[in-house]
Amino acid sequence: MNRDAIIATLIGFAIGLVITGMILLGPTITRQLPGIRFPQIQWPTITLPSFPGFGSKSAPSPAPTNAPPALTIDAPLPDTIEPKDTLIVSGTAPAGSVVVVGGPVDEAATHATAEGKYAAQVSILEGKNDISVTMISATQQVTQSVTVYYTPEEF
């Protein structure tokens, strides 16, 4: 064997023994050393001057609005698997508004009832179907969408 390789092996072995000794005996030795105490530093208290009229007004908080959403889709639920190729989409919209339900094959238009309910039937294709529902009233137009899946297979 080469002399340099033997020296490198001995140095590595010695370093390994020192590290192992520190890991095994280190906690015992540090408990026996006297405790080291660091000095306590007291920071001075700083007070800022007050300016009259500055910062005395609180920011207004926005009032919560409890207005119901203009358009909701109650059925079908998102990401459901449908067993039929026709689908009834229902939900709520402002009373008297026009609701257009669009599927991948056709569209259906209806009016929301006096209670704010609507329902329309659309055809869907096998696989993923994005259904969009648009509510049109005199003051606004809102669109919501839902994704459903259709498969003719039985589970």
Description:
The protein is α+β, with helices and mostly antiparallel strands. The chain has two domains: 1-32; 72-150, Immunoglobulin-like (Sandwich). 19% of the residues lie in helices and 33% in strands. The protein has one helix and eight strands. The chain has one helix at residues 3-32; strands at residues 72-75, 80-82, 86-92, 98-102, 107-111, 117-123, 127-136, 141-150. A five-stranded mixed β-sheet has the order 2-8-7-4-5, with no helix packed on it. It has a three-stranded antiparallel β-sheet with strand order 1-3-6, with no helix packed on it. Strand 4 and strand 5 (107-111) form a beta hairpin. It is elongated and about 90 Å long. The chain starts with a helix and ends in a 5-residue tail after the last strand. The mean pLDDT is 82.
